[in-house]
Structure formats: structure tokens, C-alpha cells
Design a protein that fits this description.
The longest helix has 22 residues. 42% of the residues lie in helices and 16% in strands. It has one domain: HIT-like (HIT family, subunit A, 2-Layer Sandwich). Helix 4 crosses helix 6. It is globular. The protein is α+β, with helices and mostly antiparallel strands and 162 residues long. The structure holds zinc ion. Zinc ion (ZN) binds next to helix 2.
Length: 162
């Protein structure tokens, strides 16, 4: 598998290490401002939101609202709900952005390379044929802040169509 190169993530990872007290997922869970946090869907137990520092366009995170670090600490119904949300949002992302596949997975624990090891999150990264070359070509700026709002609106609209 070709690895995605996402240089804009390095500042994020450095920043997060030094501000351990503020968990962005807990902040998003507690907030009423879904647009600010790019929350696509929420219920009492989980959130679906855009990753602010994506590996690729449409990189989603499925997050339990509880601040827990391990899968076995997540309630069984919430774990099941995370998988249902993954299936649902993969279908929406695929329909909206015509991606060819996904990388889906967890980094559990600091040793795994997870940038927010205290709060479990499931990555859903859309993949296109040749996207590793594509990302290097477009560089650092295109995918980050401005496009996130656009992607957020596109996905919300696609979810509402169903
Ligand atoms: Zn948290």
C-alpha cells in the first residue's frame, strides 16, 4: 500500500502533545456548535465528525462521546453503533466524492502513533486510485481549512438526501 503523505499534520501532532488537558473530541461532544467542530452526526453516545487535519479529503472520525482510551472500555451498544455509523458514512462519502476505497481503523495507545491516545477514535479515510501522487502535487494548503467547510456542507447535504 502506498502511504499518504500529509505534511500539514506535523504541526497538529506537536501541538497536541503539549496541550494534553484539552481533548478536542470532548470539546466537540460538549459543544452545541456542530458547524464549528464539523460534526456531521451525533447522538448521546457517539459523534461523526471531519478530521480537521485530514490524511485525505473527507477523512472522518467516529468517536464515542465518553473519554475512554480502549475499545473494551466502550459500551457494547456504542461499539456496535460506531460500526453502523462507519457503514452509513462510507456510503455517503463514496456517493459524494466517488472514492474508490477506504482505510478504516484505530490507533490504540500512544505507541501506535495515535495523536490523541486518550480518546478512542475510528478513522475513515477515503482513497482514490493514485491519490498518493495527487496529494503531493496539491501540497499543504488546499485540503485544510477552507475546503473542510465545503466538504462538511456537501456531506451534510448528501446525508439529508437519504
Ligand atoms: Zn476526550
Amino acid at each position: 500500500m502506498d502511504r499518504l503523505y500529509a505534511p500539514w499534520r506535523s504541526s497538529y501532532i506537536k501541538k497536541d502533545k503539549s496541550s494534553d488537558d484539552q481533548c478536542p473530541f470532548c470539546e466537540a461532544a460538549a459543544s452545541n456548535d456542530d458547524a464549528k467542530h464539523h460534526v456531521l452526526e451525533r447522538d448521546g453516545s457517539l459523534l461523526v465528525l471531519l478530521n480537521r487535519f485530514p490524511y485525505n479529503s473527507g477523512h472522518l472520525l467516529i468517536v464515542p462521546t465518553a473519554h475512554v482510551s480502549d475499545l473494551e472500555l466502550v459500551a457494547r451498544t456504542v461499539r456496535a453503533g460506531m460500526m453502523e455509523a462507519t457503514a452509513k458514512w462510507c456510503a455517503i462519502v463514496k456517493k459524494t466524492f466517488k472514492c474508490h476505497g477506504f482505510n478504516i481503523g484505530f490507533n490504540v495507545g500512544e505507541v501506535s502513533g495515535g495523536s490523541i491516545p486518550g480518546h478512542l477514535h475510528l478513522h475513515v479515510v477515503p482513497r482514490w486510485q493514485g491519490d498518493t501522487n495527487f496529494l503531493v502535487t496539491i501540497g499543504e494548503t488546499k485540503l485544510i481549512s477552507s475546503d473542510l467547510n465545503e466538504i462538511y456542507q456537501q456531506l451534510l447535504a448528501a446525508a439529508a438526501e437519504k
